[in-house]
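Example 215.
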Amino acid sequence: MADGYEILRENMVKRLRDHYGIRDLRVLEVMNRLPRHIFVPEAIKHQAYKDNALPIASNQTISQPYIVARMTELLELAPAARILEIGAGSGYQTAVLASIAGQIFAIERIPNLAADAQDRIQRLGFHNVKLRCADGTNGWDVYAPFDGILVAAGSPEIPQPLLRQLKPGGRLVIPIGPDHKTQNLIRVTRAPNGYQTEDFGPCSFVPLIGEHGWK
Ligand code: SAH
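Predicted structure in complex with S-adenosyl-L-homocysteine:
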């Protein structure tokens, strides 16, 4: 349905592909379709497709489109994949994941953000998302193990419960860094005999606050 944002959305996706080198066609297709403007505060709706993170309620941010695309691509999602998302925030990343993977289990620690994200996900008609308000650093034991885990907030180290809740062959994508502002984007793959770690360079997220994150 036309919403007046088609051109801004298309430009955003062109930039993801041509400037940032996003190759996963499903990611590009989904981001060309999802109404990102309904995930940001009304007053800055017109900025929703810009190339940066934006403030949402409770001092948090909606991630830059490039970061959403990159993290999703790094999960290498299969259509039936079960994904744990930590730090649902606005719910935009949740909607991207739900459009590509099988089932999404999303956690957000701030109650009003969790409620708003839940609302948007419902309004968009997704039936494959379970969203709860909790400390995501403990993972979500009852629905584990997961094919992929995406953490959208920066942590001093990899939360151990998340490693345990990863299936063999599963991938965890998470920003890890020494302070509240700077991290590197890390992907951990669970191999048959241990964990393999790759570093995808610097990034900047709000802090992951919880038992296995920042106290
Ligand atoms: N992908 C989201 C990013 C939101 S910012 C978006 O684009 O909208 C990161 C979010 O992580 C914030 O909403 C913050 O409240 C949440 N967060 C921080 N620590 C958390 C924790 N331990 N468990 C769950 N959510 C957490």
